[in-house]
Amino acid sequence: MMKKLWPHARPYRLWILIGIACSAAEAVFELLIPLVMSDIVDIGIQNGDQSYILREGGRMVVLALVSLFFGVSAAICSSVAGQGFGANLRRAEYDHIQTFAFSNIEGFSTASLVTRLTSDVNAMQMTLMMGMRLLVRAPVMLISALVLSVRISYRLSNVFLVALPLLVVVVSVILVRVGPMFRSLQEKTDALNLVVQENLTGIRVVKSFVREDYELEKFAKRNNDLKNTSQQAFGAVVINMPIMMLIVYGTIIAVMWFGGHMVFSGTLPAGKLMTYFTYITQIMISLMMVSMVFMMLTRSVACARRIVEVLAEIPAITDSRAAADEEGRPVTVSDGRIDFDHVSFKYSPESPEWILQDVNLHIRSGQTVGVLGGTGSGKTTLVSLIPRLYEAERGTVSVGGRPVDAYTMEHLRDAVSVVLQKNTLFSGTIRENLLWGNPNATEDQLWAACRAACADEFLERMPDGLDTDLGQGGVNVSGGQKQRLCIARAILKQPKVLILDDSTSAVDTATDAKIRAAFVRELKDTTKFIIAQRVASVCEADVILVMDGGSIVAQGKHDELMQTCAIYREVYQSQQEGASIDA
Q1: Among residues of the chain, what percentage have pLDDT more than 90?
Q2: What's the pLDDT tens digit per position in 301-340?
Q3: HSE (side-chain half, CA atoms, 13 Å) at 97
Q4: Residue 407 per-residue DSSP state
């Protein structure tokens, strides 16, 4: 685990070393103060030497100021190192998530990934910050105070033979108990975040179905689970304090009893007993700090394991087989040819059912391909293999005459534009969202893409045009407008392959026809895959694929399929009858 985490703290190792040294120095100078105080009582006050008292008092002030300086320095160093470590860890975790294939992301819930990036990392950086101070200061102070206490009175130090084992037993029992609780605590946090995320993302659905009470009940259940787990975990931690205070004060009473007898008998000076009380307090406080650190480490270990799980996840799809040209540069997609050679696919290797079975397909560059089929027939899965969003289990998918794994994912996906079923717009302006397609697009290119996608019709009515703020997830535009903006973004990319996954379902048939006409006009050399439920959206395609049960059961032009494919003919006739009824 440390091998995964240490590289993110390494850039701050100098700050860590300086912080540790300052924490140790702070403890040492603080421990010297009681010795000076003892001399003031036993020598200065007993002899009535005012000059000695003032001189030694000055030394105490200097020692206190030096200890303060090292304390402040340690706090600064620990803050810089802790915050830097946290930032590096978050960035590394987020960067690694970006390399995940869909199958990797599906192994973690989104809410869990958010928790691991935020609260888990916060716990780790807090552990480093506190650990730099307490894990150094507490042991140094504990050992030094023990040594000085024994030097003052060996006999009186026997009290520790009872107190220290008791403290060790108490801390050990609590640590063993709270370890699993902290792991469960983070899992309950994941579950609560999942409910909140789903509710806020689908707030329109919740309100339209009047399910607020159901969502409140679901939230309350997860919230109570988190509360109960937190109470158990932190309750076990909190009980540590009164037990330790009982042992501390019991030790002080014992020292007061035996030490008082030693002072009365003249075997121990009163000033030394005062110093001994100071050291006892510091020893006990040090032990309490050590126990607190161990409690914090117990939680951070649970968080660290969750972070390492993400960092150790091996991306299912990599560039390991990417080819290079004669000059050693990664190959690029030359054209939009698409070939499926006996391709089969299933989402999980353990799954008994194949989503795609022995698919053979050969599409020339620039052709328009329509894809029809019932729900679950494998339409989306088929086109998802082209940009390598998933990896074929068997067979080969080729783009531009090369297998898709011969390209780096950057070059392959840069040549393929995908407008998915679920359209996604990001917070910001329309212009910022369109520039995802081409960051260097000019004003004219932006408007040309919008006209091709029929988005100019509503953009021209907006007061700010392309600079209209969309809000989170594009809440300021309708479903059809959102689809047209996503299509415009894809057109701006000028891809070799354009995939539209039922992405005109929310627009009327007239607008759908205009968009398809724009594809023919603006993207002549681009291979276009159009998944649709309406036959009218694909009837003019060069090739129409009819899918059923994960296989291509028929392919050809509209007229051919009307003669040879019963499934296609039934779909067409049912939609024509529906159109007649509507008319």
Answers
A1: 22
A2: 888 888 998 999 888 888 888 888 777 788 889 999 999 9
A3: 21
A4: S
The candidate with the shortest Cα–Cα distance to 1, out of 300, 304, 310, is 304
d(CA 321, CA 117): 31
Confirm if 561 and 544 have CB atoms less than 8 A apart.
Answer: yes
Torsional sign, CA 558, 560, 563, 564: negative
Q: How far apart are CA 146 and CA 59, in angstroms?
A: 23
Residue 35 parent element (H or E): helix 13-39
Strand boundaries in 327-407, DSSP class E:
338-345, 356-363, 368-373, 394-399, 402-403
- Coil vs helix vs strand at 76: helix
Compute the average pLDDT of residues 119-139: 83
Alpha-helical regions (H) of 99-159: 102-105, 110-117, 119-152
Please give the Cα distance from 159 to 252 (Å, whole number).
Answer: 9
Q: Which positions ≥6 away from 424 have C-beta within 8 Å?
A: 473, 474, 486
Q: Give the separation between CA 109 and CA 89, rounded to whole angstroms.
A: 20
Give the 3-state secondary structure of residue 375: coil
pLDDT tens column, 184-225: 877 888 888 888 877 877 776 777 777 888 888 888 998 898
Of 82, 265, 254, 68, the C-alpha closest to 161 is 254
Classify residue 45 by its DSSP letter.
Answer: I
Which residue is listed with tokens 């100021």?
A: 65
Alpha carbon 447 to chain centroid distance? Answer: 36
Neighbouring C-alpha atoms within 13 Å toward the C-beta of 178: 27
Question: Minimal CA–CA distance to 295: which of 163, 178, 143, 421?
Answer: 178
Phi, psi of 396 (to 5 degrees): -135, 130
End-to-end CA distance of the chain: 67
Cβ contact 4:92 at 8 Å: no
CA distance 340 to 338: 7
* 361 bridge partner residues: 340
Give the residue carrying structure tokens 């129409």: 544
Whether residue 526 contacts residue 336, with contact meaning beta carbons closer than 8 Å, is answered with yes
The reported pLDDT for the residue numbered 179 is 67
Which residue's entry shows tokens 């126990």? 291
The radius of gyration of the chain's CA atoms, rounded to the nearest angstrom, is: 35
Please tell me whether residue 360 adopts helix, strand or coil conformation: strand
546 within 8 A of 372, measured Cβ to Cβ: yes
* CA 494 – CA 22 distance, rounded (Å): 59
Q: Which two tokens stand for residue 438?
A: 């081409």
